[in-house]
Amino acid sequence: xxxxxxxxxxxxxxxxxxxDVKTVLGFKRGTFPLTTEPFLATTPAxxxxxxxxxxxxxxLATYLKKEMGKVAVVAKGCDTRNxxxxxxxxxxxxxxxxxxxxxxxxxxxVKKATEMAGGDILYATEQGEEMILTTAGEEIRVPxxxxxxxxxALCAHPNPVIYDMLVADPVPVQTGMDRYADIREIDAKTSxxxxxxxxxxxxxxxxxxxxxxxxxxxxxxxxxxxxxxxQWVGKGTDPVDVRTYHMLRAIHCAGRCTECGxxxxxxxxxxxxxxxxxxxxxxxxxxxxxxAGLTLxxxxxxxxxxxDDPEEFIL
Amino acid sequence: MSSFEPKIITFLCNWCSYGAADLAxxxxxxxxxxxxxxxxxxxxxxxxxxxxxxxxxxxxxxWISGCHPGDCHYIEGNxxxxxxxxxxxxxxxxxxxxxxxxxxSWISSAEGVKFAEVANRVIDEVKQLGPARVFIKKSPEESxx
Lengths: 315, 145
Description:
The complex is a heterodimer of chains A (315) and B (145). Chain A has 315 residues and is of the alpha/beta class.
């Protein structure tokens, strides 16, 4: 069992016993190996189900709603940044949320694990820095670092930036990684090659909106894809509609996205949606020097401006 | 390619660039008739989805023009617009829409000459690129054909 699980359970039980919060939003073990589910603990007895391992890929900030009253939420570094964005956007109040911060060592990608194991994984356990993956035929040990999701491998903020309690001491922060190598690679292509690259990359998209639903930032009462008068984007899997959807979603999340990777982890078709959101993240950083969700005083990038924002492209 | 007559959707803000278009007209400055002007209250009113809608419906180019920074009728609308346009331009180019199809400018209502110059430049660039090919929504019948 991951060492964090027990601490999370204890902290949650204490919060519920003292009546500080009505509910604790956390993870519980999933039905299948390498999965977890979001879980709402409402009584101290429930907290035994709370769980933590390397499969807590979802971002629980998605489930925070104003009408929930005071809740506690288990949050990784990226999730806390997201909660911070929600607070600056007046989505929730700081005093209404108790943040149980988890210094995160990264979440793993199921696809990578399955490829590594060479078959369906029947059972998976975490042991120190290694994962033990059991398939029908064999049992293999793989270092966790090899299975990390891309956003976790490139993570610059593994420790919670805002929290009321931490489940463990902060973890070391990596520096010097090249966060945008793949983005620059695409940037260097010709327009036609870029179009062809994304045509292929997004061809699998079925428009199930798992990415939108998993994303804490996608909280508009009516999403532009659901608007019908005028209808900005068709509902089918026409390549132009698919592209319109992903481009607009990336623009909407620009300057707010904290790279939690929930969108990509939720995608059943392995569509690389984060390529677009990361392009936006890079743009926001390069042009305006902003990074989302680090302080409570900062507004989202599209909500503010500087008089001397670069405008070399404007005639 | 000389026979190619591009369609360029042009968003002009009511207070500056639309006035400039008017001035260019009454001053008889020449530019080709390839623009379809949409008057908007402010460049800040233009949402990226409007630009995408224009391209999806077959526009060969989009040109957006507003007041110079500092001169916005609504004080700060064009500053927000500038941020939105930056993101829009980056994401469209990243996706493989040629940079020459999307143009932005600040033109005040006294700059009729600049309006004609920029119009000529935009039309030239789009003409060179030829008709838009990739980002056009086809009807089911067209797709089947």
